[in-house]
Records
---
Amino acid sequence: MRRFGWMLAVLCCFSGGHARALVIDGQEVQDLYGYILRILEEDARVQAEFREQALRNPTYRGYRPHTYSSLRHMTTEDILYGAAQGAYMAIRYNRDGDAGVIAAKAEANIGVVMELFPMLARDFEAGAKLVELMQGKGTQDYFQIYLLKRAIPGLTSPSLFSEYWQEAIQQHRPAFNKAIVFLLENYATAPDAAALAMRIQEFQAEKEFLDWLQQEAGVREWMAKQPEPKDLRDTAVRAEALAAVKNRNALDSRLRALFESRQLIARQTDEVLSRTAELKQAALDTVARIDAAYPMLASLEQLPDRSKGPMIPGPPRDENAPITSTQPTLGIPTLGF
């Protein structure tokens, strides 16, 4: 949007049959968050007028177009810039407020703008940029938290963006997995981000294991003989299903992957990672849940301890790098705080 900072943006909206010019001056264009809000507010007004007209006259068939076409000149990069501005506005007007209040308002402001992201994204390749930004900067990064919260279905209310983001994660699964590992092994990761990364790691590891178990040939044969559907999340049912597995080598490999995730979460208690007491306790509780649900993991050989040398702050490196490029900057200091 910086390329539009020197010009006036004139949007034509139609209200009551008369063209109405919505003029955004140069200063407001610089505040892209405010610019987008003006468009959305204008659209809400136009749609409200249409509904009122339809209620007064049930036979009314007038056309009230959405004003989203006013956003056609923008790109996903502009939306990211606007989301950053929304976080900045939450901080700017609540500097004396509680940290929780600021975080909630920042998330709300980011959400208003990011709902437009899927409309401008041509495909899921745009999600690669989001995976990159999800790494954060090792500080309080509201945009990073916004993305992490929406990486797990059901953690937040469903929305157009959350559906797009979760599909984009599937399209970029290897990079996303490496990004989560980076957050868990980097001692500079902010506590809130580390806590969410830990939840994502647990959720994804168990989901992948149960998805495989349900499709395993021996388990499918076993389930077909059951008088009623079985839920593999039930400990007793899962134990019976594991006994029915035919491909024992594949089972060992899957259990090893689950164990590695368990170990990664357990390492959050290591002193070298400098995690908060609350996060360490959450890690212990998570490991206890995994051990209770999968007692067979106790028989696995301990993996080499990698906690002695966690990654240092900065762009990810080596095998833990979620993508090949360095961490991005958009030319503004508002994506991370």
Note: The chain has three domains: 1-73, 75-175, 187-310.
---
Amino acid sequence: MTGSLRGRGGMPALVDLLRRVGLLRHPVAASRILGRYGGTLAAAIELGALHGDDRIALVRGGNRVTYGRLRDDVRATAAALSERWPEGTAVSVADAATAVGVVLPAAAIAAGLDVVPLGPRLGDADRAAIRRREGIAAVLTAADVRSDSGAVVLRRTPGRLRMLSSGSTGVASATVRGGMGVRALMPLADLDRRIGWPRGAVLVLPPLDHGHGLSTVVAGLLRGETMLLASGLPADELGALVRADAPATVTGVPLQLTRALRAGVFAAERPPRLVVSGSSRLSEEVAARLQATGARVIDCLGSTETGTFATRVPPAAFRPLAGVRIEVRDDGAVSVDSAMSGGAVRTGDIGGIRRGALVLAGRADGLVDTAGELVSSDRIVRELRALPQVRSCRVEVTADELRGAVITAYVQVHDAAVTHEHLRDALIPTLGRAGIPRRIEVV
């Protein structure tokens, strides 16, 4: 059915959020922090430190970073960056898995620099094109982190976070995420209320250059919780991390949550009590398996352009967050107007409205949702046909329990010595590891 949905309320949730993150307990300090940093990652770290300098903020492997250390490193690094680069300079960050991936973007934004995350999923050609188009002056690394607690940051307007869209049909575009005004805080407060985070550590499976991973870290830092950074960890290290820190919450995209199930994360002595799924829609089968562990499951729907705009408790349908408007047109195309989108934008989904909720029925833009990434079959065909080794090719999309969908490319080559490994290696520079077909069959 066509029509529209509008999320209502939010003010009680906003007041409750202010209480939970300590703004009402530390009004003077919180006001000073927000006045200096706005609604940025640096502000979340400073506000998190109000819960106690000695609390553990980040864990990655054997590295455990306290809130006091994290705050001081951000301040010192911001001071060094503000002396090195003029206000408004665009930079990127090389590390998206460890504490460095939190310190550097927070410090750069505090120093008045814009941050454009360029994760490892991008191909070399796309990365170079984005650097040129976005005017990225430097890629910051661990060598740029400073630890001088007495450093002073030059007084500047905080920079912006410019997250990349999927880029599935070409070079990704950057979407600005600036400070949080009241309109933006309303849906975030509603989201926080619906999730109902339990006290305790949060296992973060996505990398920090992924919107879901970064937003989860911000939410956890605001509450003064311990964030377990688990992106890319092998199963044995993931298991050791869970046994050592017993996370109360696990968050990730559906593929990562399915892998966590297989790795025994939910079979621990103290299994997680909450699962927060983001990015792709969580399948009913995986949701049921997660719920069978005893965990409460929240499925969040969103995009880079809109932010999270709706949630559901499987198997129910999606309901919009406070302040969000969802519209379904006659052809089933879904558009969203949120504080982040700045107007109605099409999400690429096809759906309908039933009993006051959004039900999804597929994609309208021809993209394939595989392992939390939107991939263009047409672009895969174009890039394969452009290879001199290839005579012809076609792609096939099949359903997959782990990834949601799998793309298989069937390729005819000029030389029988060309293997699928050769073709995969040739595609990585243009499509990146996330954009290449899961399977390549040489026929």
Note: The first strand starts at residue 3 and ends at 6.
---
Amino acid sequence: MPSSITRYLDLVDEQREAIFPLPSIFARLFRDRPYKADIDDVYKRPGFPMKMGWTSRPKSRRSGR
């Protein structure tokens, strides 16, 4: 008896194969277009706290004993 995860993944594969031809044709039209979004550099903001490292605790240095 297959698990529910296996049945779900099989279902997703079947759905992908049934609908894959149409999206692939549509995706080729937009494949090489650049994004029209500007990514904001938060480090260049005048009010961004640059010295936040001293407020957080360091990671544990204990070995896995």
Note: Helices lie at 4-19, 21-29.
---
Amino acid sequence: MGLFSKTPKPHPKIIIEGIEIAFNREHDWWEFTYRGTYFCSFELSLTLPTKTELDSVLEAMESLKPEMRARLKKELSEWGDLKLDDGESCSVDIKDFATDKTFVVTWSGGESWGDLGVDFTIKDGAIIDEACGD
């Protein structure tokens, strides 16, 4: 640490029903992990879904995982020699969940992917939109 550097401030956190929710100051988003899945919201106000709603999001993701993986494999093949299952991660953006019950599952971070990401917008247990880019 330099002479004039400050210790970074910790991210503000709240805990609701055992879910630790933090506001990431560097990137201005809310983030939390529930049942092993990373959730985020890029809005300044966060409306936290109930545990029942979070469970339904996870159930929808699990049931759609084969379809997402098939589409993901197709998208990656169109970008060159990119591979599925080489370290990618998946996160869930819930910024619109409170208003219209949609959420976005983002796959990114694969070793061969660089900064490429694929987003699947999900509503009522179905993929309603797909976007790919870097």
Note: The two ends are 34 Å apart (CA to CA).
